[in-house]
Amino acid sequence: MMACGLLDLSTAAAQHSDSLRIDLKTALEIALSENPNIKVADMEIIKKEYAKKSAYGALLPQFDLIGQYQRAIKRQTVYFDEGFGMGGGNIDPTKYTPEELKIMETVGKMFAPDPEKAGEGIQMGRLNVYTAGLNVSMPLVMPSLWKNIQMSRVDFQLAMEKARSSRIDLANQVKKMFYSLLLAQASYDVFRKTYASDSLNLENIRNHFKQGVVAEYDLVTADVRLKSLIPSILQSQNMMRIAELQLKMLMGVDSEIPLKVIGSLDNYRNTLFDTIIPADTSLMNNSDIKQFDLQAEMARKGYEIQKLQFSPTLVSSFNYMYMSQNNDFKFGNYRWDPYSMLGITLSIPLFNGGQRYNNVKQSEIQIYQLNEQRKDVERGLKLSIKNNYDLMAKSMEQVVASESAVEQAHKGYKISLKRYETGMGTLVEVIAAALSITNAELQYRNAIYDYLAAKADLEKILGYDINATN
Question: Could you give the domains of the chain?
């Protein structure tokens, strides 16, 4: 009775009115739109797009509003020579007009220090200094900045390739988990049919035992055989639940939503020999190789940026400021004086402790590392392609062999059952024949699954269309 309840559990769940009916194509569509990893990868593309725009923005003028307040704790002391260079005996009167000489003499007297206090100096400035205005700067010649813009473009392409890789990986996982769920369901169906068949045999043996036709040993053996199937049924049900939960997780749907999977592994049998196996093993579309190539290009751009750190830079600047100096806080009486400057700054790198040179060497090593890593990854991928080709060919052979084995196992079971009913055979032969059917059925479906899983892995390596469902 317990086993009968187990047999009805899956059927009831599959027929739930709120079940989400999916085939492989639907599962892929839902996963590619709802999986959180895909959403994160898409957001990464948007983020890199903003980073690229930010790099371009560095070429444009930068405007800054400046506001500053300074409080003098001790004002600056200034010392003047006699006459401040004016009004003294060192002026050539032939070089100036009488009006200019008079002005210079007056100014010289204003700054002429008191002989008694000539060594003390004069404190200049006021206690409060306010500055407000606008700063404008713009790079004119900055080679490293232009190369950084090129790097941002490559970084954006790398983000897009990583998003593509995430989709390919997710599609591969969804396909294999979908096939795993079909395999678990197929295993469950095999054990369920075996249980139903053995239940009928047990009932017949029980009736024959009551009639005294068979020995009690046969009844006990048949009962043990039937009960031994229960762990396999429970295990296959557990595999179904695990595969379903993992598929829901990959699809990004709630784990409480029941699924109804459309199709079975048997539906894929006819497509095995019709499938065109890709012959292109150049890895041109492989995402890992493309990412390595983009990373190598970024490393080369970084190397060029480091070399350009030795180049001069030219930056233009413009300031328009207002300043007020006061000793009190009577803002209404403040006087604001404007001043402005326009300038160009030329910077020529000379020496910074060897940092630029060492950074260049680091970039060279990084490029070498990426090249060596790419070679290793490419060798591994080519080996995986060969293994998947071999596994697909082996699985196709197993499918053909298993089909014949299933047919022969059913035939042998019928013969052993007839022999037992006529008294020419034993129950052990019947059980062995039934076990052969179970093993052949499972091997047949496992061979189909192995082929589909290997094909999915091959499509992932070759970077094929993520929507491929055959």
Answer: 2-60+144-306+354-462 (1.20.1600.10), 77-122 (no CATH)
